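Section 5: illustrative case.
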């Protein structure tokens, strides 16, 4: 058997029993009627006493007339709560999950796990992500095509988790010293336009939904932002991705990589700080999405000792966050489109929506922040007619929160009580 098939077979065997028992029991009827006291549909309307009619995995309609509920429908009464569309996190690393094993740095745990083990334990982060109300994610980088395996397991019902759009390997330049002897090529490494084109084609051939390029240094406790790929290399990656019908995300911590990524035509720009006005205006002109991932550095500050970062990481990250927020403020004021991305990794899953709090600090209203995780995120995925709203024909992804999320964004971050993904209830704390 091919290595990828062996890997998938091992994961499927490990997960099959859990898949049988973790999923919701099939309803006697394919139709459900979900009642909310209030419903924000992300289509411009705030409903009162609304019922969402769900048929199998899709929304059939929304009504305030109880007499129109189909006879025999399973009624789910959430009239004490406010309903929202399932939320979307456009920057995660789902397969890079770790438990906090005492005495063992999380970074070491991550690098020592075999691929099958890592996909198996990633189910925990997947469930925590759903518990935060996030029913769809864009995953931006994994080794050994574990993200493709995880996506496919979820789609087949063998694992419970958010709907995943994945990239395979993110592209990055050679960054390790030469070692004599036999060195198997690492996935994703590409130097120069011909290698970039080949690497993009490799990810697409493997089954990637989106292409990811690391356009600068900066990750974990490294907050440098030195440009790595040239404009020509980025442009080649963008052209090949778009020619293949795929969107592309380019990572840049610093302003130079951000400038060239935007000029090259990236669909989304990840992380970037210190962008000048010209780059921001180019983003507005091109309708480039900005995914600033401000909150992940907060998580690193709080958990760096457990992760295993070097001494001095807190000071570097604490200095980076205000620059990241200031750039987000400038971009929002200028009219740049935002999408919510948590950059969740290690044990951060379940905290995905904390990014919305930073968006409010950047000047957004709670409703504008919510749009970054619904309609905006769906548009970035190219799924604006299926995800990110509560409307006929959309996937039946629904979230119930306690409180008024349009007045207080903390309600979304802290008070998720019930979650439905594709017509199946995947989390219910309404009786707690």
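Designed sequence:
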């Amino acid at each position: 058997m091919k290595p990828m098939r062996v890997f998938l077979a091992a994961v499927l065997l490990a997960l099959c029993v859990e898949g049988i028992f973790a999923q919701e029991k099939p309803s006697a009827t394919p139709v459900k009627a979900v009642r909310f006291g209030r419903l924000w549909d992300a289509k411009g309307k705030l409903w009162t006493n609304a019922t969402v009619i769900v048929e199998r995995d899709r929304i059939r309609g929304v009504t305030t007339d109880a007499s129109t509920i189909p006879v025999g429908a399973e009624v789910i009464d959430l009239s004490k709560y406010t309903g929202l569309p399932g939320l979307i996190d456009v920057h995660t690393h789902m397969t890079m999950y770790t438990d906090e094993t005492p005495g063992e740095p999380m970074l070491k745990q991550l690098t020592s796990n075999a691929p099958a083990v890592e996909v198996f334990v990633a189910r925990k982060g997947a469930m925590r992500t759903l518990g935060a109300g996030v029913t769809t994610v864009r995953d931006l980088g994994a080794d050994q095509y574990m993200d493709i395996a995880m996506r496919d397991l979820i789609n087949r019902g063998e694992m419970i988790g958010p709907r995943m759009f994945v990239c395979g390997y993110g592209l990055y330049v050679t960054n390790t010293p030469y070692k004599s002897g036999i060195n198997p090529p690492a996935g994703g490494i590409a130097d120069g336009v011909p290698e970039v084109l080949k690497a993009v084609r490799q990810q697409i051939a493997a089954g990637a939904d989106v292409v990811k390029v690391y356009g600068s240094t900066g990750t974990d406790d490294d907050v440098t932002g030195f440009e790595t790929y040239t404009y020509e290399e980025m442009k080649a990656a963008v052209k090949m991705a778009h020619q293949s019908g795929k969107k592309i995300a380019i990572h840049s911590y610093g302003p130079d990589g951000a400038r060239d990524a935007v000029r090259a035509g990236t669909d989304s720009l990840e992380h970037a700080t210190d962008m000048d006005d010209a780059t921001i205006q180019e983003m507005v002109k091109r309708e480039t999405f900005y995914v600033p991932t401000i909150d992940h550095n907060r998580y690193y500050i709080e958990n760096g000792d457990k992760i295993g970062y070097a001494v001095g990481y807190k000071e570097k990250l604490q200095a980076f966050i205000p620059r990241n927020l200031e750039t987000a403020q400038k971009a929002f004021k200028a009219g740049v489109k935002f999408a919510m991305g948590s950059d969740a990794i290690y044990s951060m899953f379940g905290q995905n929506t904390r990014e919305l709090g930073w968006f409010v600090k950047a000047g957004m209203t709670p409703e504008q922040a919510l749009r970054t995780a619904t309609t905006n995120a769906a548009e970035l995925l190219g799924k604006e007619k299926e995800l990110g709203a509560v409307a006929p024909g959309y996937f039946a992804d629904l979230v119930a929160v306690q409180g008024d999320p349009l007045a207080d964004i903390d309600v979304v971050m802290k008070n998720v009580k019930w979650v439905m993904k594709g017509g199946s209830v995947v989390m219910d704390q309404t009786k707690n």
